[in-house]
Amino acid sequence: MSLSTDRILTTHVGSLPRSLKLQEANAARKAGTLDEADFQSTLADEVKQVVAKQVETGIDIVNDGEYGHAMTQAVDYGAWWTYSFARTGGLELVKDGNPANEVHRSTPGNLKYTTFGDRRDWTKFRDFYTSEIDTGNDPDSAFPVATSEISYIGQDAVASDVRNLKAGIEAAGASAGFVAALSPGSAARVGNKHYASDKDFQFAWAEVLREEYKAITDAGLTLQIDDPSISEGWDQINPEPSVEDYLAFIKTSVDALNYALEGIPEDQVRFHLCWGSWHGPHTTDLEFKYLADTLPSINARGYTFEAANARHAHEWKVWENLTLPEGKYIVPGVVSHSTNVVEHPELVAQRIEQFASVVGKENVVASTDCGLGGRLHEDIAWAKLSALTEGARIASERLFS
């Protein structure tokens, strides 16, 4: 992907609100009441429309809205992850002995994820989370578990992602596009009853996901790796570990990802870091300064991260003491998915200028904190993207004049 030398480019993290028509089509397909050809026709048309709307809004680096990652309702915090279940062989839905319900307590040097509902912020604010947000920790629910060797079976699905986005780009006249895909570390959060170790399981996922990565990049598109496990996992280890133990713990995830990316051009890869997309209190997020050295070790050219939400907006100053490797660029979030308040374009411009002051204006692409689809009403999501592009225009006038 080529960066601009005369203005601040804009993009977003991936997920965009799905129309009611697409939600209903996904539900009908799941129920077996919609013909596959009719579904694909609807999906292609919806992607074309969402690409056109991004271009109309002023977004430079567009995507398919992650419309190939099925959602059957307006609010869905997990489609970025659950889409992979249907694209992977060797998984079975398990109810008895559901590993999602196993509560683990870690010890130094032996860290383990606990259940989602047992994470430290969710226990600290138990009343809020049990009354306001579904933890998804239903003991009677089925959960995907690897019961045999896993394999990639999503060839048709990723081909559809690529085909629909490229058609949308051509129709709308967009200049660049990206497709989001799961990281091995996050994919390995499903249950494992086949592989001998967590490391073996993550590298098995690396082998599987490499095929999806190559399908995206071989088509000339940018690959965005979604990997909240790098940062979000900190809150899901109980009791709180030392930073040193945690950084050692996530090194396997980084190594597995770099293994999956071998042979893929670095300039076609960007990596997304986040602390969790749900609307709720975050007080145990790992500070960005502890992850700053991990990011450049990932074989990507661009790094996207949350920088607008109330827990992380101050951390732009961390970059004052960092050296961005030559040829790399950052994609900070300058509007947030975590609030319904639409940012003023002047605030967006100021945030962009803060990052430009510490890494150079040519190395900044303005973005959102995380995906907007499934988290915000569509009117709010598009208003935020408009504020993003207007803020980038304001910042560009001041930075490049």
UniProtKB/TrEMBL annotation:
SUPFAM superfamilies given in the database record: UROD/MetE-like
Gene3D superfamilies per UniProt: 3.20.20.210
GO biological process: methionine biosynthetic process
Residue ranges of domain Cobalamin-independent methionine synthase MetE C-terminal/archaeal in the record: 9-67, 202-379
GO molecular function: 5-methyltetrahydropteroyltriglutamate-homocysteine S-methyltransferase activity; zinc ion binding
InterPro entries (UniProt xref): Met_Synth_C/arc, UROD/MetE-like_sf
Protein name from the UniProt record: Cobalamin-independent methionine synthase II family protein
The species this protein was found in: Rothia terrae
